[in-house]
Design a protein that fits this description.
Ubiquitin-like (UB roll), 16-stranded antiparallel sheet, disordered N terminus, mainly beta
Amino acid sequence: MTRRMSRRSSVAVRRTVLGLVLGIPLVAQPGLAQDVQVEESVTETVEVAAPVPEAPRVLISEVLIEGISGHPEEERLQIAAYDAMEVRPGSRVTRQELQQDLNAIQATGWFSDVRITPQNGPLGVQVIVQVEPFPTLTEVDLVTPKVELLPAEVIEETFSSDFGRTLNLNDLQQRMKVLQKWMADQGYSLARITGPERVSPEGVVTLKLTQGSVAGVEVKFLNKEGEDVDEKGNPIGGKTKDWVVSREISLQPGDPFNRNKLEKDLKRLYATKLFSDVKVTLRPVPEQPGDVMIVLGVVEQSTGQLSGGLGYSQSQGVFGQVSVQDTNLFGRAWNLGLNLTYGQYGGLANLNFTDPWIYGDKHRTSFRSSLFLSQQVPQVFQSEDSGNIRTINSYVDNNNKYAYETGREYKFTKDKKAPGNINKAEDKFPERSWFDYEGDTVVLRKTGGSFSFARPLNGGDPFKDTKWNVLAGMSFTEVRPINFAAESRPYGVSTNNLGNGRVKDDNVICISYNCANSNFLMGVRFATTYNNFNNPSNPTSGNFFTAGTEQFVGVNEDSPTFNRFRASYTQFFPVDWLKIHKGCRPKPGEEANCPQAIGVQVKGGMILGEAPPYEAFCMGGSNSIRGWYDCDLAVAKSFGELTIEYRFPLISIFSGEVFMDAGTDFGTQKDVPGKPGMLLDKDGSGVSVGTGVIVTTPVGPLRLEVASKDFAEDWRFNLGVGWKF
């Protein structure tokens, strides 16, 4: 056996009987790479013919590999060519077997040209294999007729191990498959890589990228059975405007088709809550091979709602609610709603309108407005433990120690005055009407409206995922302090100081700004938010930041000028501590489902200027310091709060929490006009610890919590809807 490579000199060879046997030199077709697509197999009809005489065989004395002398990878290429052949010195072969060896050498992928030339030698036939290797790979160039889908860095990374080495078509095909998979993972499922189109002598390989593009978006309305025509064959019409559907589709005519983008588009369509089902069909465009028409078949759902119910809140007592709403007004996705609430201590009528995306706006700007009429008992003037602020008819300020003519005397018996708060009064005198106790309760009647614009900071791309949002708006409100008889009552006095028709001058406070029968509040608001939560409903990691300012401008003597600023920051840290829930103990091969985290929230605010007392910050309650009732900790011009909470799953829809809340008014209760917090002996600062159980419901988490007040034995139960933060 001889394996030899030599640079052959030109020698005249006589034509012998070998030429009749093996014929002229065998030449392979120039080899370029094929498409990475899998071609359909071709079935051939085989006819049985008469037996063919066996082809003549000749003795091979030597196999020579030529054409690679001095090549940097000479040995590697020589071995590749030789190992691909079945013919060996000493074997007897036919012309067909030599052709098979030629094809096998070509199939190694190393050579652009292969020729086999047989010639007579002293001991038999010499087989001379003339090969031409591909050049060293230096660059991969991509021909794209439209948009570049493959970043240069992806191509560089894919071919990094091949640069500087002899090009191999088989390896090239594998790299093309890698690129094809990368594009499919990115959503470009219709894109195809073919080639090479050309291999230059300098080693530049040119590939071609063909991409399926979007020819357009078509909207069809379907019935519940999924049909797009009625029994008469007419197209089914819909209420929703076509552009309401198409504007949620980021894929535009001419864009490369991207399945990932389309899936996000469908999620946005479902998020509008206008459709119960969306069916997608990709229809080929015959005149534009490779392009597709996106056909969206949408099934509309009812958007008109009428609802009602009963509820209870610590500030409003028992209340009933009726709501009428249409979330697709005029088929433009407009939301118009009327909400009526009436309860033991007040009521609310609110007409609101929302346009979730102003038509034609590239920033996805939303608009919201409302008109309202409310009558509520403000918690600023209430205390669970220390009485409350009552209105008085009028009073005479004689610049002396006492103010006279302060209204009714709270004498329920001959010997005793009325208790300081409604709960104690009802327990002690159950035969009296609640109006007897609450007839002079502070009530605020508010009439006004507001409007605002909000948009994500997306740089003009309505489909860009962004974490920042901004808001700007304006409000106008008339506020009238009254009692339950709807009589104007701009003055008030603490039940701790009320007795026998006279109180100290210093204890008579102005319920409203400037002791006016009504105040007009006009303000502008600016706010921004940053949301990086991993889960909007129950986050376990990420952070959230919000900050906003409201500037109120005085337009008359009874209209205050002040600024209110508040901000909060929340951070979640994932933990893996308790493993009570079965999802925290996955079986081998299963994925854990154990959302538990430590949440930390810091928030604060301040008021600059002379704000009326009903605009002060309230501290305490289910969304504040949970060891105190609503507004029972402080009524302040500044505040700061800190909450640390551990959340963990228990069983089924139940979760648990352990928390600590702390807050302070920074000593600003005395700066609130009238000092209602100090008159009602509110603590101003405190710490509470507690625990709770959370039930996951269709309307959100329902919290049942118990919390202490300043680590004392004074425990408060709380029922809240939604997470505290």
